[in-house]
Design a protein that fits this description.
Its EC number is 1.4.1.21. By secondary structure, the chain is an alpha/beta fold. The chain has ten helices and eleven strands. The strands form two sheets. Strands 3-2-1-4-5-6 form a six-stranded parallel sheet, with helices on both faces. It has a five-stranded mixed sheet with strand order 8-9-7-10-11. It binds 1,4-dihydronicotinamide adenine dinucleotide (NAI) and oxaloacetate ion. The site of 1,4-dihydronicotinamide adenine dinucleotide has 30 residues, from α1, α3 and α9.
Amino acid sequence: MKRIGLLGCGAIGTQIALAIDSGKIPAVLTHVYDNSKDAANILVLKLNTKPEIVENSHLLSSHPVDIVVEAASQDAVKDVGLSVLQNKRDLMIMSVGALLDESIYDILSDACSHFKKTIYLPSGAIAGLDGIKSIKHELESVSITTTKHPRSLKGAKFFETSQIDLDKINSSTVIFEGTAKEAVQLFPANINVAALLSLSGIGSEKTTVKIVADPNTDKNTHHIEAAGKFGKMTFTIENIPDANNPKTSRLAILSAIETLRKYCSDDIQIGT
Ligand SMILES: NC(=O)C1=CN([C@@H]2O[C@H](COP(=O)(O)OP(=O)(O)OC[C@H]3O[C@@H](n4cnc5c(N)ncnc54)[C@H](O)[C@@H]3O)[C@@H](O)[C@H]2O)C=CC1
Ligand SMILES: O=C([O-])CC(=O)C(=O)O
């Protein structure tokens, strides 16, 4: 049975832990960490099989786990990613935006080959990455338009310098247009999907992002358009937001659970 260390006990981390506890993921959750001690304690209370709460994030991979699952923040990836691989553990990353920093990407990618370990990036809150990966050498343009309720965009770095007041938006409004690289820096908890799209396709400078605040939506919608020599692909994913964290879609949680289930099972593997 695989042993899992969990970094981040919020919306995604909690559902992953419950999926392990219920046997849906055939593994044991042995260690957890969250910057918020309360978040870690509340999670452990919900579990039948209690993991140990470690004192800092680096300690997760010093224990004999097979994989560390990051469901915390881009900073957490930058802080512990390398040490997880150096300790010869696999790593699953949800805060994929961190990898659009080329120096972080190169360090982690080199460490994977050096230590013979793998980083897993679940498809998160979107679908279609199998197709994008297959046609990446023939891709000419990729765009993603993400529409969320203003409450799901609150707290983003973007608003520290923008004049836009989310509380005053009363109809669907484009609040950001730019590259994926800019988007993940300005909206670190909202647009990791643009990082997944960039890494699967033509990179973060050529992948374009539009973010729309719509007070009349109750979904997190991602509309992707890709075109090139191969033809054209469009995907629209209308996600139900998580009840505890409206920034995060239910699909992101389920894709994390499915990626881990696959990692922990000897099974037929479907898809590219
Ligand atoms: N790849 C994808 O498609 C998606 C990725 N995400 C990303 O996944 C991550 C987790 O998402 P949620 O669980 O919804 O967030 P959340 O905000 O509900 O939970 C995050 C937890 O991590 C903790 N945390 C934050 N930084 C930390 C650090 N440096 N060290 C230790 N603990 C830390 C927080 O205290 C919090 O309890 C976020 O970065 C989010 O942006 C979310 C949705 C989709
Ligand atoms: O869950 C979503 O809809 C997308 C999201 O927050 C992200 O990509 O960071």
